[in-house]
Amino acid sequence: MEPSPDELRRAIAVLAHELRNPLSVFRAGVDLLSTEDSQQAQIKEVLLRQTMQMTRLVEDLSDISRAELNKLRIERRPLRLQEVVEETVDGLQHVLARRRQRLEMQVSTEPIWISGDRVRIGQMLSNLLSNASKYSKADSQIDLRVEIDRGRACLRVRDFGIGIAEDDLARIFDFLSQCESREAIEHCEGGLGIGLALARQIAGGHDGSITAHSEGLGKGSEFQVRLPTISRDAWESIPELDNRTFTPCRVLVVDDNRSSQLLLPALIGRLGDHEVEVAASGEETLEVLAAFTPDLILLDLGLPDMSGIELARIVRGMELMTETRIVALTGFDNEDFRELAAKAGIDAYRVKPVSVEMLRSVFEELNLRGPTSDSPIAGVSSS
Q: pTM (2 decimals)?
C-alpha cells in the first residue's frame, strides 16, 4: 500500500533531521581545518562547497515536508546584496567550469542593501543560476545583472539555452513542476522540481517578486527578481562581525553525539576565551549544573534519556538558572518544536548544521558579554 501524503511528509522530515546531525559534524570540522598551506586550503574549499550543497538539499527536503511553501521561514537582517551574489557565484564556479560555461556579470558598484535572509537569498540566486546552467549548452554564456531599477534591487539571470514553451511558462513556478518539452527532459539532471517554486516564495517573503520571460523554445530565458532596498541609515549602522570575539562566558554544550562534543567547544573557542563544559544526557546535565552555572546552554533536543524541551523546563525552574540563556541546536526543523521550545523557556532556536557563523550570530543576538556582579550576562533584553 502506498503511503499517504501526510505519511510521506513525515518520513521526509525524519530523513532531513537524521541527515542534519552528520552535516553538523562535517561543517564544524571544515570550519576548524587549518589553512596554513595551499593544498589544505583547497581541500577545505572542496569540503565546504560539498557540505553547503548537501545542506541545501536537506533544506529542500524540509521545505517539501512542510507541504505548503508559504510556511517557509525567513530570518531577515540588513545585508549587502553584492556580498551574497559573490558568495553564491563562487559556490557555483565548479558547475560552470564543468560545463565550460561563461558567466558575464554586471554588478552595480554602488552598495545595494536589503533586509534579507542571507541563506535564502543565496539559495534563490543559486537555483536561478543552476537552472540557467542546466538548460544551456556547454560552452555557452549566462548573464547576471545586479542593479537598482526604479528604486528596487534587481537581479536578472539570462541564458541563451533551450528556452521555455508557452504552456510551461504559465506554471514554471508551481510546486513540483517539471517542464515537459523534449528539450527540457533531455537537459534535466534529476532535480526535485521545487527550485523555482522556492525562489518565488523566497522573493515573496522579502516583499519582492520574481518573473520569468522567454520568447519560446530555443530562444533562451530570463528571470528577474525585484527586492525592496533599505535606507542609508540602516546599513551604515551594521556592525562588522566576521572577526569579532566576545567577552569570556561560561557555556554548557548538551549533546549526545560524540563528534559534536569534540567540535562544538572548539568552534566556541574561535569566538573568545570561553569556559566550556559538556554533557551527553539530561541526567548528566543536571549533575554538571550542580557545580557549574553557565551563561549559555547550547542544547540538542534529541537526548537519550529525556527530550531537550523537558530538560529546558527543569533548568528554567532552577533558582540559579533564571539568567541563563538557552539555545536549541537541533536537527528538528518544524513549527511545532519551535513553539514547544519557546514555551519551555528556550531563548533561540537554530537548526543544524552548526558553523562558526551560526554561533557568532547566537552570541550577537543574545548580546553575550560575560559575567557581571549582578547577572551572568550583561545587557540582555528579554525575548
A: 0.55
